[in-house]
Prior knowledge:
By secondary structure, the protein is mainly α. The chain is built from 14 helices and no strands.
Amino acid sequence: MILSRALLKRPSVLPGFDVALGLTLLYLSLIVLVPLSATFLKTATMTWPAFWEAVASPRVVASYKLTFSASLAAALLNVVFGLLVAWVLVRYDFFGRRLVDALVDLPFALPTAVAGITLTGMYASNGWLGQWLEPLGIKVAFTPLGVFVAMTFIGLPFVVRTVQPILEDLASELEEAAVTLGATRLQTFTKVILPILTPALLTGFALAFARALGEYGSIIFIAGNMPMVSEITPLLIITKLEQYDYQGATAIAVVMLVMSFVLLLAINGLQAWSRKRQGK
């Protein structure tokens, strides 16, 4: 008892709760809250008709539809194939596994401009893949499909790196017990493994979705940036800034922030619900 009390009274390596909380709030305020507040304050100086004209013009609405739909589709695809990649890397030992594991992180390390140029070179009409796809009627570069491809490319590592540690810690005894009780492979996966992986999959989905929404550098090269066709919202914000239309840029940014926050809040709610079902 005396030893345990002594251990509790030992000073921590980190500062106390009050100091740590204060530093945390100060850092978050400087890095996150102040810039976001400035965006909302700048937009608040606009009249309602001017705000509505800036955020609801046909060109802007078309960019919303493309950005959010492509981000959602890319994140959903990455959930499926990110789980598959993580499963292969964890469950199978094969030649070149370390190389494949390292390649997963390539979109993290690769500059976005380099990624965009590379993807454009691959999927252009004279590119390695584009020269075979276009005769089949599949045009990727300079189309909305190119936006989807770029978003998928930059989002895959988020799902893999989120799911991989959970798979590594997953006890094989659970699967063996399910098989012993007569479960098929599909039942073992859907009833035993998938519920455990669901929170990690939702987290990976949220991260991939958020990254795709804000991606700019790797998309503008392959998208073609045609208004009403393949123009993403971040590009519109940059365009308005270059035209010194700061209010218009912040108005569109506020809409993106609110929509992104609502979607991420819903995803976090699903994560909490999933963990509650598992008793965590």
